[in-house]
Amino acid sequence: xxxxxxxxxxxxxxxxxxxxxxDVIFPARFLLRMDKAGLGACLFADRPAQSAALRRxxxxxxxxxxxxxxxxxxSSREHAVWSLVDFGIRAVIAPSFGxxxxxxxxxxxxxxxxxxxxxxxxxxxxxxxxxITIDLHAKTITTSAxxxxxFDMPESDRQAxxxxxxxxxxxxxxxxxxxxxFEASYRDRRPWLFRGVxxx
Length: 200
Prior knowledge:
There is one protein chain. The chain contains 8 helices and 8 strands, in the order ββααβαβαβαβββααα. The protein is α/β, with parallel strands linked by helices and 200 residues long. The chain has 2 domains: 7-164, Aconitase, domain 4 (Alpha-Beta Barrel), CATH 3.20.19.10; 166-200, no CATH class. The protein has a 4-stranded antiparallel beta sheet with strand order 1-6-7-8, covered by helices on one side. It has a 4-stranded parallel beta sheet with strand order 2-3-4-5. β4 (91-94), α4 and β5 form a beta-alpha-beta unit. The model has no long low-confidence stretch (mean pLDDT 91).
């Protein structure tokens, strides 16, 4: 995981085309790369315009993307999320997301925030004048122009981002009591399996 994500203050890039799918985000020819580190170099590799939008002339990193509808649709490759996070993107704000992409996002430290297009267009205009701040505790997006927009997201996703949890951490947080009860019961019923472990 990339660590807890509470607030982001960053320049934003507008990629408002609808239907930017996972093959556009992370082209299929790079799928043999299994190490997450370095995947950011493959981000939008076949789309020079999108790639250029993420590389500001002043050298400041872009951590927020405004996108069109169904961002991350298409195939289920988790590499799309990995490449965004490795590049430094921590939030994508779009009217809708590919379902699998949205599920992968929170488990890998990427906030997928759903807003209607008019509010995204307003944020896009404001972002030209300065940074955007996303506060996951308050569930707000604030611009340097003073615009404040609230958003919602599944609470399980928000908690995963706030705590830096992956899928196993999320399962432990939700079911720790039941897991501990099962493990204790399992040891009681099969003590011979744990003799060497318990004795060090």
